[in-house]
Amino acid sequence: MSVFIKGAECDGCPGCNDDPCDQAPNAPASTLVCRTAAASQSKCGWDEFVTSTPPKKYRVKAQSGAVVYSNGGFTYTNTWGGNKTYATPACTTTETRTLRVQDDFCTPATDFTLNAPGQYVIADVIEAGASINGNYVFQTNACDTTVGSSNGPADSAISSSATSLGVTADQSGFSGSMSIDLSDEYTTAQLETDTTNAIPSFSGSFTNGGCTGAYYDVSTDELTITKRTMEYKFTLPTLTGFTCYRLEWNEHFAPEGGGAATDTPKSYQWDGVATETGVYTIAVPGSQGTTTITDVVKTCDCA
Fold first, then answer.
1. How far apart, in whole angstroms, are the C-alpha atoms of residue 31 and residue 62?
2. What whole-number percentage of the chain has pLDDT above 90?
């Protein structure tokens, strides 16, 4: 913040003797004090299977399909359903994924809810690599209520798009297919709203070290947004004997990454009684950048 003393006749300054204020600094300085309120939010969810630019996040991951295992004339059918969901803006997850096992021994089919560590399905394993040689939940006895793991079929055809990942089992004894599908994109527009709603009310004291300005930033990958607003005021010096005291300044916006800055002029005229100005608010800028207080001019010549 730069402070200037207006070079004018100091008709309202005690003891000025008509000298310019910049020669006889009888217009004492005021103190700028501020407080801010800010929020920074990030997108949560599942990454795309094929990344785009900027990258996207999806809040629902659904699973579907069935893989059949045949052995010695007996058939075991594993059917998956349900989804995992991110609730925003809190970014908490819920899981309603299930595994249904149908075989030649138990009637009716047995449902297992997959909500424990390690109890995941073929598609989860596919997400981690290019094959499904790892362990995954595949039950081969519906009479057994304990969900177990076994090696997946090693030779499988895998297909993917930005929002869908699938596998077709073609190893001996296995058949069928399984997929994960992503939906409900966490858009940048929604993140804008969530960040605005997360900004708290102003609280705490005004300080002369808190004048960091109002601020708006979107990360280059559009996964994080930061917003800050600011309240400020000037505390006035002792003005005993003064007939006039005036402040002028700019709310100065500097765009992020350069470009033409803009100034919004402001002023305050002392009423002869007050010890501080009123409170001014700078909103979050409408485009990326920072708004601060600059070019403060004080004068006791108000003619």
1. 58
2. 42
User: Which has the closest alpha carbon to 257: 297, 287, 225, 224?
Assistant: 287
Domain end among 153, 185, 217: 185
**CA 188 vs CA 163, 204, 301: distances in Å:** 18, 31, 51
Domain identity same for 99 and 180? yes
Instruction: Mention every residue, 6+ apart, whose C-beta is less than 8 A from residue 279.
Output: 231, 232, 233
For residue range 226-250, what is the model confidence (pLDDT) as tens digits?
A: 999 999 999 999 888 888 899 999 9
What confidence score (pLDDT) does residue 182 get? 92
**End-of-domain residue from the set 170, 185, 200:** 185
Enclosing H/E stretch for 87? strand 83-87
Q: Look-up: residue for tokens 């390690």?
A: 118
The amino acid at 266: K
* Residues of the domain holding 52: 46-185
Determine contact, residues 10/278, Cβ cutoff 8 Å.
no
Of 92, 112, 91, 89, the C-alpha closest to 100 is: 112
